[in-house]
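Input record (one chain):
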Amino acid sequence: MSQRKQQISFFLLPDDETNIAAEIRRVLPEVRLVDEWRWDDVSQPPVRDQPSDCGGAIGLWNSSIEPQLIGVQRSNGKIDGPIIGPVVQWLRCRSSDGRLNAGRWAAAHDSEDKETAAYVRKLWKIMNSATRDDLKRISGDLSAEPIKERRFRVGEAAYCSALNGELSLVANQLILAPE
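The corresponding structure, as predicted from the sequence alone:
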């Protein structure tokens, strides 16, 4: 058995997160939002209603594939959520000083686990339909034609804020803007 890993990077403001979470609930009502940084008990995942109720990392847990979610307790007592299976990691975008740092969804599952693979495909379809990818690089060598950047998704609120010059879209040293 091999492990399949996927990720999708994005720029989302809280309104974008709320809209995506609502679409997830509509399409996949069995998915729960788990606040990955606030586990108190390995057998009680901290389920929240909205992304804004969570810290910087959310687990998108498909409770119909795995009805019970068990965390992992570290030697220092801290509890982490599972890192493989029907839980997709959602690292939220961080905003400060007019910069919106990219977030991402990451999935890891057994390549033969067709049910989890189908779940991940549905989540990616939701993200792709709720966001756009028409960004360009505005950092680095700008002497040539602007470089179109299609590796990142961007929510409508984040796109409009960047278009209006209210914030910069940043991924490490890369700075992006609407085309």
